[in-house]
């Protein structure tokens, strides 16, 4: 059994604990501000969203810490290394929440470690700077990459069950030059760990961040696919690290794979989404629902994002303006809706005085190609 020889109060007072739980708070606050500024109301109630994010992160951290202790895994990490990783995490997060993932910080430390190893001499440094130089020179790259791989296996699980929680409605230019709607997935999880080290159990949190673009698939399908891709990425990294046990030079291949795989997958998926047939547009089938405000008439009737509203009170609907025009002169609404599986549903509800005319729905923009064809035919 690993005995604890460290003062836990000292470690829990470290700034990374505050930062790790502040990042999700900042992320969710900004998301809520954008939604209220754009739509006048919040699509994601911030308190339940924040609590779910914290609880999932703590759960994953507890399970992983338990597995480390169960299998007597020890990481030869030092306090200076944690400071370096969190310093680079803080710096990279300035470029965007997507870069707050600690894998970017670890790869940066890894490349600095590789660069220092190539320098044939030790520069004349003061004691303070020499400690940091020595830290990078002795940086246990392979152990840190193992931690990256294991945490990204956990991230695959988190993406699969919670990756769409922070989805934002966007307008994106497709490769066919058409403006389409879609979703930008963005999520940050704090993962508090108890890492077994030669000094004892070391309490330290890490950040996992996830970002993705979806223009062509249903939310659930895209979320499952993203989780699978992250799982394959983490599995590939694990395979490289296993091989590095026999051929140490492969550790550097794993370092390059960590960075190129992580960032390359994101860029490749964004490019592929812009090439594929857009899903979130309103066309001759009807009005595509992007999202529904909580406790709105549409929410009460069970309308969900991805549904297609094609008839309201017997009239064909293609845009949210059509919905507004019809409900302004109605005391009751009867909707005909297709869900994501294209199953037909009939919904109805009385309209009250304070109900919004759009029924609490956010509709996708109309298919511009169809509008252009209609204009040409009219000419």
TrEMBL record:
InterPro entries attached to this UniProt entry: PDZ_6 (IPR041489), PDZ_sf (IPR036034)
Pfam families: PDZ_6 (PF17820)
Transmembrane region(s): 16-33, 54-77, 83-107, 114-132, 227-243
Keywords, ordered alphabetically: Membrane, Transmembrane, Transmembrane helix
Boundaries of every PDZ domain copy: 289-328
Protein known as: PDZ domain-containing protein
Organism: Seinonella peptonophila
């Amino acid at each position: 059994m690993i005995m604890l020889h460290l003062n836990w109060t000292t470690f829990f007072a470290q700034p990374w604990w505050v930062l790790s739980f502040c990042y999700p708070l900042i992320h969710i606050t900004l998301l809520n501000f954008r939604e209220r500024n754009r739509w006048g109301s919040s699509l994601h109630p911030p308190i339940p969203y924040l609590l779910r994010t914290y609880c999932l992160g703590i759960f994953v951290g507890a399970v992983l810490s338990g597995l480390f202790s169960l299998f007597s895994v020890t990481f030869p990490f030092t306090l200076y290394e944690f400071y370096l990783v969190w310093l680079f995490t803080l710096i990279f997060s300035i470029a965007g929440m997507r870069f707050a993932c600690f894998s970017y910080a670890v790869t940066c430390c890894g490349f600095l470690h590789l660069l220092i190893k190539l320098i044939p001499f030790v520069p004349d440094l003061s004691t303070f700077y020499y400690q940091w130089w020595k830290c990078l020179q002795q940086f246990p790259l392979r152990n840190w990459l193992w931690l990256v791989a294991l945490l990204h296996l956990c991230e695959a699980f988190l993406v699969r069950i919670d990756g769409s929680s922070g989805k934002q409605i966007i307008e994106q230019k497709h490769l066919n030059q058409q403006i389409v709607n879609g979703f930008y997935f963005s999520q940050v999880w704090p993962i508090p760990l108890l890492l077994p080290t030669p000094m004892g159990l070391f309490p330290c949190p890490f950040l996992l961040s996830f970002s993705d673009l979806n223009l062509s698939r249903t939310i659930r399908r895209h979320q499952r696919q993203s989780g699978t891709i992250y799982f394959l990425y983490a599995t590939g990294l694990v395979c490289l690290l296993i091989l590095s046990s026999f051929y140490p030079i492969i550790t550097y291949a794993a370092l390059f794979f960590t960075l190129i795989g992580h960032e390359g997958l994101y860029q490749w998926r964004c490019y592929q989404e812009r090439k594929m047939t857009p899903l979130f547009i309103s066309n001759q089938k009807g009005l595509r629902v992007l999202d529904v405000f909580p406790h709105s008439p549409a929410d009460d009737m069970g309308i969900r994002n991805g549904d297609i509203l094609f008839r309201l009170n017997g009239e064909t609907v293609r845009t949210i303006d059509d919905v507004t025009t019809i409900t302004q002169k109605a005391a009751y609404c009867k909707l005909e809706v297709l869900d994501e599986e294209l199953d037909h549903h009939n919904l109805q509800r009385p309209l009250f005085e304070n109900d919004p005319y759009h029924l609490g729905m956010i509709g996708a923009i109309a298919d511009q190609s169809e509008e252009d064809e209609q204009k040409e035919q009219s000419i």
